[in-house]
């Protein structure tokens, strides 16, 4: 029967060889006759603690008490009580003698006395940490006494251990027993193994073995005395030698002294209940205890309390002991973020604490949580991650970024929030270097092609800047196919001045990737047009770019003449952009300097994009016609463009996206594969002549009054669609209510310098005919079409 009970208590395993743990080095101290060893699991190598107790025979009293401790530790569960994992009992024979050893495997801990020496805390930080630990042990003792009606019997410094997260936990349950105060007939010892407790830790009634008085006392009387002994050993820094030393209160904090004296009252009935000790607000309320306590009950807090707490946490963490923050607070914070109980501001505190870790510890303790957070649907979490991506992006491996992070980040490119699209775009400056070529060409460039025609001008501008910064990570074929089209066809023709300026800067920054033919036929013609741009900043950049590219061509020409091998791109003597191109429309610069010529706006709030765009509305409105007119100049048959090398078929997504910025190229199939402008804008007089030459006059015999819209041929409609903006720049307004024949003499007098003025549209009148009922709200007859009216009137005038 005894062997059966012994097997039940011993747990699984029949010998040390069956123990699934490796026993390591011992700690210098342990409670009672136990030995405390470091250990690891044979399965996964995780750390554990192993306690061992040996005896000469199975009837040894120490072994009986040890079995009691194993049973109690296995059945009693509490956050502040040591966690039980495994136990076994091994009997070994050495000749005629036998030896029995009990092994207990628990979570990894170390003795409190050793941890205090290791931390080396002083003054206020030491007192705050002691308050946190006493609060935890007080809760464990209160749980045993008040909830379980159990008596520990030997609460002291040796019976407390510390976890890797610096939590204090109670163990040494060998003496633990039920409180049988209601059993008045009992006369024997209430604690069968009380002889294991040192005399200095026993209250007077236990020293006298007055079990009658003990049974009449409250359940907490013995352990309250033990808690007082623990307080003395903590603040005195030495082990209790005799009971009289408890009267020395020099090191006890004043706020704790009254409770300390009540815990050590000579009358058991007057000793302070441990649950009442925890209510001592003056001692236990400090920054460390309050912070840890808030994190422990985080799920019970509302969103306002969480938000306020986490916004203050970074500053509070700086005032707490660094070791405690990193080992205790940081794991709590990471866990709360990972399981969704923490608010978005907690990420800022997590990253600040993580910056105090070494690179290896950061990768182990912080990065796994961050990677999991990228899959969160909480928009506030996503925004916070993107805002701080420069703090952890370098620590992530290329495989993690490409496979786990980027797929979630990429959803922000198509988000309805412009602010989130902008942050997603800027995060690519950190993440793009870690992406594979397949992801860069097959996914990222497609998203960027759409962002380059985004409705927000700031996003279009920063997309161009990003392309210039990540150009070095693209392979040669992709650079040839994408960069020139992205910078010239789209960026240089954007109606937003900073976007055009960004296109010029990006071209200069990537000048080493273009050969002489591309510079001469595709880049310089587009940049020269911008030397007469309405925006002075764009003009200044254009002149600088022209000089840079001409210098490249000149140096390559000189090398060819001297017999050297022609270089395909920028020469070493050409000044290149130092570092990365800074963001043009936001103050969020991850690694580069802000663009010097571009206006800056705050990126800390979503309205920054709208403000940046609104501030340039006037410039955009006045500049758009001039850019469009220069686009259509290429259709003139009197000027022949030099043939440009054809671009390869694009598979990046720019061909699938509508340009949306320059209406003059709506018919183009691929916005990044279009041929760029090759000619500057002609003078106004020359433009009028060219426009007049393009007007169809073959059907001018038909009266204007009888012309109708359905009779217009398909060829005329096509000309109308393609030259709509061109007509808009030189055409006359709607005809007046009373028309007069043209007076050629007056026309010659007013336009003496223009011999083609006779066939041009008449000057505008002061009165305009109201809109027809078919095209507006008016009810008057419809006016003839503008093109036909001009043709007929010109013919009659001639």
From TrEMBL:
Instruction: Tell me which residues make up the Protein kinase domain.
Output: 2-284
Please list where the region (Disordered) is annotated. 621-798
The protein's matches in PROSITE patterns, at most eight in alphabetical order, are given as: HEAT_REPEAT, PROTEIN_KINASE_DOM
Its domain of life reads Eukaryota
- Composition-biased stretches, type Polar residues, lie in 696-710, 737-750
Swiss-Prot/TrEMBL HEAT repeat ranges: 366-404, 523-561
SMART domains per record? S_TKc
Locations of Low complexity compositional bias? 755-770
Residue ranges, compositional bias (Basic and acidic residues): 663-672
SUPFAM superfamilies documented for this protein: ARM repeat, Protein kinase-like (PK-like)
Q: What is this protein called?
A: N-terminal kinase-like protein
Its source organism is: Camelina sativa (False flax)
| Gene that this polypeptide is encoded by | LOC104782558
